[in-house]
Amino acid sequence: MKIVDHLKNAKKTLFSIEILPPLKGQGIQSLFEHLDPLMEFNPPFVDVTYHREEFVYKDRGNGLLEKRSIKKRPGTVGICSAIKNKYSVDPVPHIICGGFTKEETENALIDLNFLDIHNVLLIRGDAIKSEGVFRAEELGHNYAIELVDQVVKMNQGQYLDEALLNANHTNFCIGVAGYPEKHFEAPNLKFDLHYLKRKVELGAEYVVTQMFYDNQKYFDFVKKCREVGIEVPIIPGLKPITIKRQNTILPRIFHIDIPEALSDEIEKCKTNEQVREVGVEWAIQQAKELMEFGVPCLHFYSMGKAEPVYKIASSLF
Fold this sequence. Notes:
alpha/beta, globular, TIM Barrel, 8-stranded parallel β-barrel
């Protein structure tokens, strides 16, 4: 089922999660052990991220450098198929610009279509850490809106090979990312919303937000979206803080603010166990307020840690 249909048919706020593919060398069982307890709360869909390859250069000792791939995770397409088969929930693979040519993106979408997976979240993705600035692959996409355009065209039966006749029409439901505190590369929120609206006008059917810790930022974001004509569902993304150093790491990595009240409570903690308690309680209160606001779904970034999300969901669903 399409994500928008799940949202439309829901009688109450839905619960969904986003997971990381297991690290290279880990088996699928590690992923199932993460998901098994969370299935108790009947998530209608599970997002699966994609992380592009990164590279290091090893000195071979003869004046030459050898390029080696690191941090390669198992393929999102295969993981989505495994989740669909085991749990009968709708997987939502993330499709990113970085690391892919347009043809490779098309091939991944064809594989997903063959597997009867018809939901995708389209994002640009991050820059390689060693480069600092995002660079598209040669013959790849620079921006998420270009991904949206490619998927929309495939839904219309248009493939990269213009000589194809009577090509199969795919049926993807397209999600995109939204940033209540704006994307860090955008000069301001108005600029950011302009491009989000263009994605929606092109064919994006729902938005999932970046994590945030101040609900007012989400409320203001939704209001501004509606004012500029973005009418699709906007799903809030939440992540409980679980370790003390996230108090400073999360703002740096994700370009978000941690409210003073939350930050102060974290700094008082002597152990990460205490931090988890603070983070879980803050997320529960966030979630309750968002549910009262009438959000269609609460989307949790589990980041490989099921226990905090389980505690939150146990209080809500």
